[in-house]
Amino acid sequence: MTGAADIAGLPAGLPKRPASRGLASPLLVGLGLALACAAPLGLNGYALYLLTLAGIFALVALGLNLLTGYAGQISLCHAAFFGVGAYATALLTTKAGLPYLVSLPLGALLTTAIGAAAAVPALRLKNLYLAIATLGFGVVLQKIIFEWRDLTGGGGGLALSAPTIAGYELGATGLYYLTLAFVILGLWGAWNVSRGRTGRALRIIKESEIAAASLGIHIARYKVTAFALSAFYAALAGGLFAYLVRYINPESFNVGLSIAFLSMVVIGGLGTIGGSIVGAAFYVIVPELLRGIKDAPGLVFGLLLVVVMVFMPQGLWGMARRLVWKR
Amino acid sequence: MTRLAIENVSVDFGGVHALKDVSFSFEAGSIVGLIGPNGAGKSTLLNCISGITRPTTGRVRLGETVLSTRNAADIAGQGIGRVFQHPELVLDLTARDNLLIACHRSLDYGLLSELLMLPGVWRREREAAQRVADVLRRLGIADSADTEVRSLPYGHRKLIDLGRALLMDIGFLLLDEPIAGLNDPEIAHLTALLLELRQEFGFGILVVEHNMPFVSRLCERLVVLDLGQLIADGLPAEVLSDARVISSYLGEAADA
Amino acid sequence: MIANLVVGGLAAGCLYAMVGIAIVIVLNITDIANFAQGEMAMLTTFFAYWLLDDLGLAWWQAVSIAAVFGLVQGIVVQQIVIRPLIGSPVLSAIIATLGLNVVLNSLAGLIWGHQTYTFPSPFTFLAPFQVAGVPVPVASVVNIAVSLAIIAGMTLFLRLTWTGLGMRAASQNQTVARLMGVSITKSSAIAWALGGLVGGIAGILVAPSVFLDTNLMAGLLIKAFAGGVLGGLNSLVGVFLGCLALGVSENLASAYLSPSFADAITFIVIIAVLIVRPEGIFGRVKVRKA
């Protein structure tokens, strides 16, 4: 019996794609993509800035989701990776004179090595102790940036001029599209990992390290991979961030920001890729809606974190997914 | 025939002697039962073989290769499969995806290729998916393939756990209380299945169980542990009528 | 000179220790690290300030009432946030308390704004004690005395009272404790109440030295955890000693190396301790029968 599956060359009875009961149908993704591409046409400068920022945070969240959502490793130092990436890109561009498009990935790669180092405590520690260790690691990195005044400008920070690509200055719209391109690449990479053996390995490590080992999975190797990959994402985002805000100082890359990144992933939906985007967007939009009352954004965001953990631990995206599939 | 050898293994947990100088060996293709009262050290012995616990003295050998100096993941790579007392599966994933995890070693593509989902990766994933489909059919749970494990009954989860070991190209299978929590039809199904699989794949089985009828029907040989020591090793009929074995289970009252 | 630094370090360490003790009480009984401990203490301190400033109460009265406020705050948090999370993965509770941290900080900001207030203390203007020629502020002596009193009181409570015994049982094995008639939620509530109480007292004693604003406890929380890790998070005495050691080494490092690097060194030491001996110097490895 010749069925469509046979014609496509697939053995019958196999799913057409690796099973992913996600919410992102091709229609939804296409629509989102179209809107994202058209955005600069309809938005003013400030709104475009916010959207770019949301994209940058989404990139961090995508990486952090792989580490915390899939592998179950808590990290309170991702703001430090973000910051190191920002400084690395900035310094490679200004002091080493490299083109922006080279210093971005290069700075990210350099940060990845540091990210791999952060995995060392994770090999022995879990939960609270890992949280404290990563918190400490992040603070140390922040201090190093602060103290290395000759290189980084210390507490005074670094002021940056607009980045150029092949001689053309990258304005707000250009930076937005660059960010969008990286977000799309980042999304695709994360999606592939989730469907591939690394994603599966991370998940079984989260569930039970003993089961993982008995299936031949080298736990240490994968924890390092998860930390390194998530650091890469954060650092790349940092490199984009540096040139969005054009002024960076060590003070901004603090524990509070690490907590913010974690909250993006959690509120969006821990362990879901769509959740990273939703969470990041939320983090950028909510304070905007509450502008004027100084502590209101913090209050709302903190409340959301608590509410999500207590009532819908699967996050906004996870809840939407569950509602849709319940039909 | 490859031989799995436990040689003078002792395990000392800071004062608690879980195993005392245990030695025995068995070949691929044979089915050995490991029995003994609670606390005898059976799980500890399985842990020593699969690398979760390192013996304080003694060693475990697979053929000529020493296993006891390696880590658990390496030992699994040598072809030692382990099925735990309580299946530890990723509840959010489907049965199919959980089984795919076990294909880990055969999917030896690099991270960069995976990030880019290169054609080679995609091809290997499809091959793995095929093997998974075969195993699902073999275990009789093909219908549950795309259901989240969270919604599957206990019996199915145990079968998936077994399926994971099968996908690993094993030479030896370690089973820790495989029929605990199963009803009679499920037990019969599992017994028949294990015998079939042994016939087809030729791996050796070491099974820890308390259920004597199951153990007698399945195993060609029984090894008995009591308080960390090996007290009997032989044919089921002999072992089960051995006075020391009976008294270790029932206590001194059996002396009447 | 060194003596002065050591005394100063001990005084600072005491402040960390009090926050640390509050954390350890909750952590040991309910297995949850309260990342909002500092902010809860800060809120209690602001409440005390309101009693002192707006209502014009005497110091001792305000402190007593604020202590009760801290106690109640602990119970409220436990009932609303923690109880629903019993049984959830540990990550959830950590994130929930992090969220609570932000909520309480914002709440305090909304009510009292972000300016700095001076918090009075009856000990500030007393002449310092002289110990071997080194002046020791009365406030520091009070802090040490209070910390020791709290440790002693908690230890006696946990060892000698039925409730305390029940709480210790609950922290070891919930199922068995339940079978023995111990109410897990009641133990949890009492632990959080005590944590809130001790934290509040800590904040009130800290405020006079570092001035009262919404960031009062932020830095202290991290140091308290760090000192706790050093000494052993499952031991009250361990936290106390660990935090004192931390205070002293920070002070010395700050004077002889660099203030900013003193902080970094703190964390490097902490990470090293976590890798080599996670249970801390005085801690015991907690073995749990599943």
Question: Short description, anyone?
Answer:
The complex is a heterotrimer of chains A (327), B (256) and C (290). Chain A is mainly α.
Walk me through what this model shows.
Chain A is mainly α and 327 residues long. Chain A has a domain at 45-254. Chain A has 15 helices and four strands. With 256 residues, chain B is of the alpha/beta class. Chain B starts with a strand and ends in a 6-residue tail after the last helix. Mean pLDDT of chain B is 90; it is low at 252-256. Chain C has one domain (2-214). Helices cover 73% and strands 2% of the residues of chain C. Chain C has eleven helices and two strands. Chain C has a two-stranded antiparallel ribbon with strand order 1-2. Chain C is globular and about 60 Å long. Chain C starts with a helix and ends in a 14-residue tail after the last helix. The model of chain C has no long low-confidence stretch (mean pLDDT 85).
What is the 3D shape of chain B? Answer: globular
Principal-axis shape of chain C: globular
CATH domain fold name of the largest domain in chain B: Rossmann fold
Helical element count of chain B? Answer: 10
The class by helix and strand makeup of chain B works out as alpha/beta
User: What's the count of strands of chain C?
Assistant: 2
Radius of gyration of chain C: 19 Å
Helix content of chain C: over 70%
User: Which CATH class of the largest domain in chain B applies here?
Assistant: Alpha Beta
Low-confidence stretches of chain B: 252-256
Strand elements of chain B, count: 10
